[in-house]
Amino acid sequence: MLLLTPEDMALPAMSMFVATLRSALWEAQDGPITLDVESLDLGWARGPVYTQALHTWYLAKYRERRPDALIAFRTDTIQLALELRQELWPDIPLIVLSEDGQLWNHTPRPERVAGLWLRYDWRATVELALRLLPDTRRLAFVNGSSPWEQAQQELLVRELQPLLAHRGLEFIDLSQLPLAQMLERARTLPDHTAVLTYTFMTDPSGRPFVGREIARMFLAASNRPSFALHDTVMGLGFIGGALVSYEAVGEQLGQLTARVLGGAREEFLQPLKPTSSDARLTVDARALRRWGIPRERVPAGVRLIFDEPTLWERYRWWLLGALTLSALQALVVGGLVVERRRRMRAQAELAERQRLEKLAEQEARRTLDQLAHMGRVAALGELAASLAHELNQPLAAILSNAQAARRLLDAPHTELAEVREALGDIISDDKRAGEVIHRMRALLKREEPRQELHSLNDLVGEVASLLANDMHLRGANLRLSLAPTLPGILGDGIQLQQVMLNLLINGLDAMTELPEGQRELRVGTASPGPGQVELSVQDSGGGIEPSRLARIFEPFYSTKDHGLGMGLSISRSIVEAHGGRLEAQSPPGQGALLRCVFPSVDPESAHVPTPRHALPRGR
Amino acid sequence: MSQPPATLFLVDDDESVLRGLGRLLRAAGHVTKSFSSPAQFLAQLSGDTPGCAVLDLRMPGLNGLELQQVMASKGCHLPVIFITGHGDVPASVRAMKAGAVDFLLKPFDEQHLLAAIEQALRKDAAARAGRAERAVLHARHAALTPREREVCTLVAQGLTNKEVALRLGTTEKTIKVHRARVIQKLEVDSVAELVRFVDRLGQG
């Protein structure tokens, strides 16, 4: 499955949408699915050159990987998805989530397209605002400046125009302002203004933003109550709105995709159905209190969130009754209330602490992922010369063969067999170059960490082949001794490979002082005990001084001149996140030995068969 | 004397590059011999084929620069063109200092490669002609008697017959006879040409 999203996956709406889509698909398929997510960043980058580049890149990337279905979100992405599908896999279904219900009312609908219509209900949101704030005379509108956001704004103005005219509302447009000015205006909005916010992806200077962060800044600045359309920003201080739940949308789209994959052809013919989560009118009770809006104004059927009734509200009748009975009883009741309040406060504090701890844990996990990504980028940077070489070899062969073929065709007696061979070589060399890029790309890719079953030997093999040329250039020998059978290991393959890459590069760096013939890196896998798999990397360098041995895993501690001192600390965090441990030893006279021991998966039954790895080629 | 055709010796451990290179050069009308390792190339290196060598810089076992040295030590005078996928400045400087004709970065264009090869073949032909000429001169020089050689050397240094006679302790008349023999055996027409002959001989 290939999913094209218009914006950065880091945006909360996007990540929520993708997460629920993934789990809905998983549930419907009754098992794991592979969901490749490509974020097109259309809010931040666009133009024909960018689109062309995306097109070329995906052609290269997915030439050999045919998805079962293509999923695209938002009209601009859908357009690109249609073009890509036309070129790559014209017969696979396309499932769309469009914010435009009229998408195919004017042009013929392409074949094998099913989809949903995600409706942003501006009108219901404004009507809610007018119910809650009846003396509103102005409506201020905040929106980003990317082309898609501008297009959405046109729709909004068209839809709201009758309502604005009917109620005699003045429309204040804050969406063309750079961020700083927008915040300034938000501080000084006139009285009787309600604010409707949409998205904050870019300001007119083209600066990209993460909407939730800007929403927070905006709410801190704004002197008037504000309304929103995305459930992901609720809780920050917006009063409410007709909220789109990306959780529900992702789930519905996942179910639709599963139905299409299951052979439901009729979905291709039906018009785009609106998502059932449309216009879920929601109000934040805390925000109501903050702006002094009486609860009675909240219309029936509107969901109230963050609603904690006051003690008086909760125990009013009981207290009144008790008071009428006797003063003594009232005292007792008072004592009970105090006691209860104390207990509730303690409970609230505990809950808050737990929430913060969980947040901190998530934050730490995210930081680790980011660091891991940075580490990979840095490690690949060290391999740059080697990678350039790996690419230049096939490129040289391609160029020579192509020019030879041209000469052969120009010759008086064309030898077609020779031309054919030249073309055959060109094709295989092109694939070889593609492989290099693919391996590199796989390592650079930044994705949510995955839990998958891996063979440690396979992971080592791939890293070794990526490093083979570097080994050669640095005059080092790599000796792999892999256990013939090894239980599997559960975790994120890319992160595990990063650890390996790191340990191997460290080993190489440790041997630069040695004469060329003596640089030997030994990499082994083993199963040291039941339920364990081990990776060991030993260099033939000078080893690590005992005093430094304890410190090498500390962040920013490096024994290298140009080292950042992050590699080993990131590696250890990754290993520990996988339930394993990473240790360094320095056996006298034998160089440094780094050992990672991981828990294996079901050592009795899950023996993952291991193909023997050929030693890497000489370059 | 009929010369064998100029042969391009290609050495690269990347089979695919080697095949493409050979195909291109053959399509451009050259005779090629391909080797996937330096050892293979050295084993087949025959004494005096005209041509040039196109060597990959980075190969396992023996790199291109080392191969260039081994060739020189074995008396192989083929001009060398280096090709490399990983161009570093020190390596190219060393290669050029050791007499390489050119240093091309992969991927290289056929125009550059063919121009470098033309240049290398011209260099080889010129060196070969020079060596052939010197061989003839050596043969003629070898035909002189020891005394004639002494006379030849002194005359070429610009001494008059009388001075030579004095130096060798003999008469001017004897020297004249020796000199005439020298001029005859070396197949030159004048003293001036004799001086040039000795000059060219000395360059060998």
From TrEMBL, chain B:
Q: Which domain of life is it from?
A: Bacteria
InterPro entries in alphabetical order: CheY-like_superfamily (IPR011006), Sig_transdc_resp-reg_C-effctor (IPR016032), Sig_transdc_resp-reg_receiver (IPR001789), Tscrpt_reg_LuxR_C (IPR000792), WH-like_DNA-bd_sf (IPR036388)
- Family matches, as SMART domains: HTH_LUXR (SM00421), REC (SM00448)
What is this protein's name?
Answer: Fis family transcriptional regulator
Q: Which UniProt keywords apply?
A: DNA-binding, Phosphoprotein, Transcription, Transcription regulation, Two-component regulatory system
Q: Which residues form the HTH luxR-type domain?
A: 137-202
Please give the Gene Ontology molecular function terms for this protein: DNA binding
- Which of the residues bear the PTM 4-aspartylphosphate? 56
Q: Which GO terms describe its biological process?
A: phosphorelay signal transduction system; regulation of DNA-templated transcription
Q: Does the keyword NADP apply?
A: no
Which Pfam families does the record associate with it? GerE, Response_reg
Identify the residues that the record assigns to the Response regulatory domain, covering every copy.
7-121
